[in-house]
Amino acid sequence: MANEVLELEDINKFYSGTLHVLKGIELTVREGEFLALMGPSGSGKSTLLNILGCLDKPTSGSYFLGGQDVSTMSDAELSSIRSRYLGFIFQQYNLLPQYTVVENIEVPLIYQGIRLDHTTKKRCEALAELVGLGLRLDHRPMQLSGGQQQRVAIARSLVNRPHLILADEPTGNLDSKTSVEIMVMLARLNQMGKTIVMVTHENDIAGWARRIVRMRDGNIESDESNEPWPLPEGAPELPVHLLEGAA
Amino acid sequence: MDPLSLALIAVLTGAIAFLLTSDKGRRGLELALRSLWLHKLRSFLSMLGIIIGTSAVIILMSFGEGSEKDVLDDIKRLGTTNIIVRSVKPPEDANSNMRQRVATYGLTYDDMDLFRTIPAITRMVPMRIFPQETRRGAKGHNSRVVATIPQYAEVNELKPVQGRFLTEDDEALMNNVCVLGSETAKNLFPFEDPIDSSVKLGQFAYVVVGVLADRMPTGGTGGSQAAEDFNHDIYIPLSTSRGRFGDRIMIRAAGSRSMEKVDMHQITITVQDIDKVRPVGTMIREMLADAKRHPRQDWALTVPLDRLELVERTKANIRQSLGIYASISLLVGGIGIMNVMLATVTERTREVGIRRALGAKRSDITFQFLVETMVQTGIGGILGVGFGCSYVFVHALLHSMPQFSFLFQDGSPSPILHLPSITWSLTTAVGVGVIFGIYPAMRAAHMDPIEALRHV
Q1: Which of A21, A55, A86, A93 to mutate to test the interface with B (most CBs of B within 10 A)?
Q2: Number of domains in chain A
Q3: Using the beta-carbon criterion (under 8 Å), do B362 and A76 form an inter-chain contact?
Q4: Burial readout A114-148 (b: 16 or more C-beta within 10 A, e: otherwise)
């Protein structure tokens, strides 16, 4: 059995004291899993993702990330956990408009306290190349299409060699063709051993995952493994040699 | 350089060194510049308050410096180791029998002999001053005769542009020679070389031996000293004046004339060093206050050093009030910047959320926005210093050019760049940045990352 990346024990979350959003969630994610978190709006999946992402704290319960209990950590410690162990992919891409592609990929390194130099730049360029933006290193987000922006976001989520990649509706703003491209990329990353937890409400998208967890009213309704969609014929291989050096 | 500006410079260079050398500082600086460049007009407008504030400080302080220099120059022309004693015509009491046909008053040769007993005095220059028309052929000039001794030139740092000043020989031999002030020379000898020509004062002719350079009139600072224009003077040896004019002087005024007997109108006493000026001044005052010698107050004593110190004291007061104006304008500028930063923080809520999600600590966010405000006020300060300095420079330049004299009021001071105010205003500007940047930066840092990410 692979190592546990994260383990949730009896996670409860209340909003404004009375609104019970998460009701005793128990969840374990192991290394190399690709988990899709599904559920209607209000089911608590976003809250759960925020807790997994150390952006929010549970009201009660324990959250072990890589063996450390993060549920009692301070804001500064959580920031440090985010910069070291987590990679984020958002629905809105959330790139910084004043930065170029490479500079956007560098941002998590800054907050890890790594000195930016030639080596880190090379690595970020390699990651940009990995996601197919090798020719657009100096472009700014405004000059890129949605799909391209999301690829930059994927490269950014890899730069700190995270234990866990958290994706919040990564294809929510993309057309179906681009969505498939992005999902193929995530599936490839997962094949290469990256652990991914993704929130989505589309069955098509969830179909790319190996495990699907459905939530309803703050409870886990079902938790089953899934045979992911086969990678389409002729889908581009990720240049793995870049990933070896880069991520 | 005063310790305050030194400390401020140290803090400023420390902050700059940190921003330039440390990795975090350099990145913060770069990020701040980029964010400001993204909204050029807004950044400039919010800087405007600081620009106006700093340039106002520099311009005000430079004008203060300029007018102060005018006053100090005036005083220094009188000499800081000098004591000036003058004869003053006392008011005549109409009903008393003290009324004399010939008004006798003022400093006497006896007084001067008495002063000679004070060892600290190195030099005494007596002067007799009376108006007398100077004639050369048909030309006349209403000049002021100054009968004095050769040392007068040393005391007043006079330089003849032509010929020489009076000499010891002139004094000893009662030579009929004279030295002309620049205006007197210009009036009497518009075209010719005055040297060795003769002019007539009263009944006697005097040979011109020298002409003096143009001399700045005194401003009559402080009121105890009348304003004087030396350029209409004509200088003759003191001994000659006693011989030729006698001790009585006839003053003709429109429709009347009066006689005066005054030994000396002024004695300029030079003391060997600055510490002795006050004690000697006191001694002279006591000597003159003797009722047997001077039953009435017919003398006045001026110690330029006293006035110098008075000016130094008022300087501090002026500085203080200028400091208050400056603080107010910088305060207003700071509030403007804070306002803009608060709007900026709201506008960039999402950026804050993204950075937080990617691992930025609260302190990183605070630092980012704080540096941005500091850079903004710093640049505003530098622009303000640049504007203030150029204004002072241009004003002083125009002031010095006669063809632009119509722009300025007579006697208005020319500004002199006040260097400490540059460092002072610059550090205050950056300080304002820190103070007014803290609140918006903290507000950004304490936003909930989840809310911030959801912000549109």
Answers
A1: A55
A2: 1
A3: yes
A4: beeeeebbebbbbbbbbbbbeebbebbbeebeebb
- Per the CB < 8 A criterion, the answer to whether B61 and B318 are in contact is no
Establish, for the pair of chains A and B, how many residue pairs have beta carbons separated by less than 8 Å: 64
Read off the pLDDT of residues B381-426 as tens digits, 9 standing for 90 and up.
999 999 999 999 999 888 888 888 787 777 778 888 888 888 888 8
CB B216 within 8 A of CB B157: no
Cα B188 from Cα B176, distance rounded (Å): 18
Nearest-CA distance A229 → chain B (Å)? 30
- Expressed as residue numbers, the domain containing A151 is 4-246
Q: Do A246 and A126 contact (CB within 8 A), yes or no?
A: yes
Question: By three-state DSSP, how is residue A13 classified?
Answer: strand
CB contact under 8 A, B449 and A84: no
pLDDT tens, residue by residue, A124-180:
999 998 888 888 899 999 999 999 999 999 999 999 889 899 999 999 889 999 999
Report yes or no: A50 at the B interface, CB cutoff 8 Å: yes
Nearest CB among A98, A116, A160 relative to B35 is that of A98
CATH of the domain at A27: 3.40.50.300
| DSSP H helices in B39-167 | 40-78, 109-115, 152-155
Residue B281's Cβ-count burial label (10 Å; 0-12, 13-18, 19+) is: buried
Give the residue from chain A lying closest to B365, CA to CA.
A111
Q: Is the dihedral of CA B65, B70, B74, B76 positive or negative?
A: positive
